Amino acid sequence: MIERKPFESPAFGGLPQRKPPWLKVRLPSGEGYAATLRVARGRKLHTVCEEARCPNIGECWGRKTATFMILGDVCTRSCGFCAVKSGRPSGLDLDEPRRTAEAVRDLGIRHAVITSVNRDELPDGGAGIFAETVRRIRELSPGTRVEILVPDFLGKREALAKVWGARPDIFGHNVECVARLQRAVRSAANYTRSLTVLEETKKVGGMLVKTGLQVGHGEAWEEILALMDDVARIGVDIFTIGQYLQPTREHLPVRRWYTPEEFAALRQEALKRGIPHCMSGALVRSSYRAEQPFE
Ligand code: SF4
Q: 266 with 213: CB under 8 angstroms?
């Protein structure tokens, strides 16, 4: 049992927040980074790496891998942790699946992760575009593993079935935070709906399922363990745990910095509960080194 001394954030309420030393990252630069940028811009694609201000962009793009964000760059929801623009999106880019598949091919990505904004105004929430993107990647890069990280599609079974029909190798959907904090962190989503999406995908869709949690929102250790019990019970295959970082002063403040030892202890707790793969670390994100469980 490790001793848990909280590394409390010195700043609550939106003031600048000093990061602990283990959150130092590599600055974006180099040939791989430039190539990834060129392909994304050339194909007029969005990446969650940029839109969500991901700290790993230097490392991932340096390895010529990016997580493309489809269905535009405006989200119909407005979660307290997320830097993606929110508002009313206009139209639907039906050519986006083709360009996304071409970008995956051009970069030689062997494990592609595709995510999206929420498009709650669309009858299928954008599920059709997800399915088409998976199919196009398969056509152009038959040897590439395809992982999707999807919204909850408001729990609509027809939308989920569209995505299941495209048979992605991994179906990801994040619970994001513990049950008690859902309203504060992602007000338009809910814990039970997210668990149901994952459970149905596992049972009915019959595919590998993955979910992710951010810590640092003020959750108790026991609440994290309770969440692990839930995701283990529904048969989640891959679980990620990472530190929440405040993208701007307008977003939720970091309530607590978890230490590397705590992340290691959380991983052990997940494995103890029978979750087959768990990546846990300050900089872990759902798409970070997503190929690792398969290597
Ligand atoms: S962890 Fe994911 S979102 Fe972040 S830079 Fe890497 S691929 Fe992009």
A: no
